[in-house]
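Worked example

This section walks through a single chain of length 158. The input is the sequence exactly as stored; nothing has been trimmed or padded.
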Amino acid sequence: MSRRDWTRAALVAALYAVVTWAIAPWAFGILQFRASELLKPLALRGRKYIAGLTAGLFLANLASPQIGVWELLLMPLACYLGGELAYRLRAMPWLAVTVYAAWVGVSVGAMLHWVVGLPWLVSAASVFAAELPLMLVGVKVTDYLLRSTQAGGIDLAA
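Given that input, the structure is written out below as tokens.
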């Protein structure tokens, strides 16, 4: 990756972490809601954004009450793999984010099952139900974000 790509990845990582921390009581725990998931469709725009989302998730999870191997290693790995899968499906954005949301549901559901003892299927379904609308809206939000930064002289999309 170029220096410019690393800069973009770092900006996305910082934005993801800060937005997650801003809503920390709801971003962690049994019923997770992260407004930062609106940024996940950036994965469709390039691997630099997948790197940023993965690093952002790692940073955000430093504030998790369940901090440990799951939050600091396995969840960022799941974020990376889901982003890579979405990137490969980018020709069909709605399918890509649906698959990504399902992957996040399965991954976080497994973490909640093993760490907190919640039923896996219920956890996976509830995370997917929160994740999918955020990612679907996020397709439009990230398109707008990239267009508006280009118009303002900051080219985050290239």
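What to look for: The mean pLDDT is 88.
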